Write the structure tokens for this entry.
Amino acid sequence: MSSFGSHRRRFFEHLLGGLLETAEGIFYAEDMARGTSPLHRLDPRVKLIGLVALIGVSTAAARLCVVAAILGAAIAIALVARVPFGALASRVWSGALAFTLCMALPALFLTPGDAAFEIPIAGATVTRQGLTTAAYLLLRVTTAATLAFTLVVTTRWTHVLKALRTLYVPMVLVVVLGMTVRYIVLLLDTARQMFEAQRSRTLGCLEPADGRRLIYGTTGVLLGKTMHLSQEVHLAMQARGFRGEVYLLDEFQLKAVDVVALAALAAAAAGALWAGR
Amino acid sequence: MLFDLDRVTYRYQQVVALDRLTLQIPAHRRIALLGANGSGKSTLLRLLDGLYFPESGNVRFSGEPLTEDRFADDRFAFEFRRRVGLVFQNPDVQLFNATVFDEVAFAPLQLRWPKSEIRDRVDRTLELLRISHLRDRPPYRLSGGEKKRVSLASVLVVDPEVLLLDEPTAALDPRSQSQIIDFLVDWGSAGKSVIFATHDLETLEDIADEAYVLDRGTLAASGPPRSVLQNTELLARTNLIYIHKHRHSTGELHSHPHQHHHHDH
């Protein structure tokens, strides 16, 4: 195999690998949600209210140590739910970190305030206020991502949707959320098929610029195709009587343990809110 | 009449899919909608299932007009969805739940059946289609034949009076095709109405009591499958068969014009 051929192969295999990994991430959450940990057994409404409340408080807290404490609690909850630490690191924190750093990096230099230290070669000054702003952003995003991940890997997606409806979230929003997950799965599968077909028809070298051009050219077609497929899915749902409401065989029933958990999460959120004011 | 279509026109933007189509479909029959790609078969099935509504003309089901206004009424919509089921051509669009059990339970849940009855009906339907072993599997990880059987189960679970199928045997291996055909023959013999779109002429006489041939959104012919299959001029005109040179390998090499729908050599 020439180096041209191997370049081409690497480009497509990297792309296809990324698509498969993303699709597996969705399936992973659904597989994990069938677990039996104490958190899995809690009423979905309790988890939804409790974890969303903690996310809200971490966003509102005005003290860094309080946000850090909520992150610690979020990790503890995830571990109680038997979420593997490796999965948290690879699937949640690495993404959250990359996303946050892109946004926080300019804040380190652009936020006015006292100089913390100077970067020797660039000559740029990092301010204390910039560091604090970046730390808030990083901790809040990581906390929210950890709690949201814990919710979806301990609760089946249909139960999350039904819990949203029982908490009076508008039907249209719940339907859009439900369709979004189905759309993403179709999008990934269609993208995988399109790129596999292109790989089989691509000869010679594919330089990075050509690869980018290929992706730009394919994106519009891909979106059109998946829009059509998602409309088909919606028609298939309508054909079986779907009118927008979420119905499940499982009934939600608050047990004593749910009430205790709800009280504990509410107390934690209230305490953090008071401490972080 | 089960379905009565009167001068129905349907367009996809500028493309006419059905052009002033008039036809009557009787109840308790197995009806094949024959036609080449783009002849309007799938569009017709969606109109019959109340998913699309005509630009002009009328569609009636058991005398009731199928209009958007009628489907806005929950009672009418639920009753219609219980009586009429549609199996899509591509099972991937029809399978959107986390497990096969959830998938099959979806329709009765939407129709608000009692939950104990739903569990019982789902289990019986899975047994009927011989897919009980797939009960807890995610549908997107099944083979093509398994997906097709699950999508069939997801519609049959409500025991519809009318079953609409879009290319039920398309892209299946011969064994899966044969299983689906055998099932449809048995199910259609139980006094149900089956309407299916196909361009597969090989199995037509086995499955259908009557065939309607569509050509560019109009009805080109109708009648018993045998008479339709014998009308080679009609089949060639509607692109359901083609004439080509065929090479045999029984010793001597020769070639002759060949029709590819049914042959005995």
